[in-house]
Write a structure and sequence with these properties.
mainly alpha; 82% helix; rod-shaped
Length: 246
C-alpha cells in the first residue's frame, strides 16, 4: 500500500497538480488518523473486555465465599438448635426431679466444656478481593452490602463465639472439674448421678450455656439472611458484566 500511495504522489507532482496533491495528502493523513483511532478504539474495547472478565472472576469468587459462609451459618444454627433442644429437655428433667437423660448427658457436658470454639470473620478469598484494584469498580451499594456482612454480622458472630468460649472455660474451672464431670469416658449413668448431687449448680451453668447458644443461633440466622438478601444483586451484576464482555 505505501508503494501505491508514493506512486500516486509522484504522478501528481510530475503533472504539476498541486491542489490535487495537497487534497490527496490531506486525505492520506485523515486516513492514517482514522486508522489510528480505530486501532485505539479496538484496543480500548479489548482492555475493557479483559477488565470486565476479571471483574466477573472477582464476583464469582465473592459469591463462592459468601455461599460457603452462609452454609457455615446454617450448619452452626442447626447445631445450636439441636443443643438447645437437649438443654431444654435436661432442664425439664431437673424440674421434675428426674435424672438427666443418659442419651444427652455426654453431649451436653462436652459442649458446656467446649472453650475452643472460634469464628473467622474474614477469609483469604475476601481479603484478596478487597485488596484488589477491582474492588474499587464495584458499585457502592454492592460494596457496602458485602462489607456489612463481613464487618458487622461476622464480627458479631466472632464476639459471640469468644464470649461462649469464656463461659466454657469458666464452667470447666468452677463446675465441671470440681464435680468430676470433665472425664466423659465415664458411664453416662455415673455422670448423670454426679449431676444429681448438685442439680442447682448444673442448672445455673446450663442456663448460662444456653444463653450463649441462643445468641449464636440469632446471629447465625441474621448473617445467613443478610447473605441471602445480598446474593441476587451480586449475581445480577455479575451477569451484566459477563454479558458485556462478549
Amino acid at each position: 500500500m505505501p508503494r501505491i500511495f508514493n506512486a500516486i504522489r509522484q504522478r501528481l507532482l510530475k503533472e504539476n497538480r498541486i491542489t490535487r496533491y495537497l487534497a490527496y495528502a490531506v486525505g492520506e493523513i485523515v486516513l492514517v488518523v482514522v486508522g489510528i483511532l480505530i486501532a485505539l478504539q479496538i484496543n480500548n474495547w479489548n482492555e475493557g473486555r479483559k477488565l470486565r472478565l476479571r471483574q466477573v472472576d472477582l464476583i464469582n469468587a465473592l459469591i463462592l465465599d459468601l455461599n460457603a459462609k452462609m452454609e457455615e451459618n446454617m450448619g452452626d444454627l442447626k447445631i445450636g438448635e439441636r443443643l438447645m433442644a437437649k438443654a431444654e429437655k435436661a432442664l425439664q428433667d431437673l424440674g421434675s426431679g428426674a435424672a438427666i437423660d443418659t442419651a444427652d448427658v455426654r453431649t451436653l457436658l462436652r459442649n458446656m466444656a467446649a472453650d475452643e470454639w472460634r469464628y473467622m470473620t474474614t477469609t483469604p478469598s475476601y481479603t484478596s478481593i478487597i485488596n484488589s484494584d477491582l474492588w474499587q469498580q464495584l458499585p457502592d451499594t454492592l460494596a457496602i452490602g458485602v462489607q456489612r456482612i463481613y464487618d458487622h454480622h461476622s464480627n458479631g458472630l466472632r464476639v459471640c463465639f469468644e464470649k461462649h468460649s469464656e463461659y466454657a472455660t469458666h464452667c470447666r474451672l468452677t463446675y465441671l472439674a470440681p464435680h468430676g464431670l470433665l472425664d466423659l469416658d465415664q458411664d453416662p449413668m455415673a455422670l448423670s448421678m454426679k449431676i444429681a448431687e448438685d442439680p442447682e449448680a448444673f442448672r445455673v451453668h446450663l442456663t448460662t450455656f444456653m444463653s450463649g447458644v441462643y445468641r449464636l443461633i440469632k446471629f447465625n440466622g441474621a448473617s445467613g439472611k443478610a447473605i441471602e438478601a445480598q446474593m441476587p444483586a451480586l449475581i445480577s451484576y455479575r451477569d451484566e458484566l459477563a454479558g458485556g464482555s462478549h
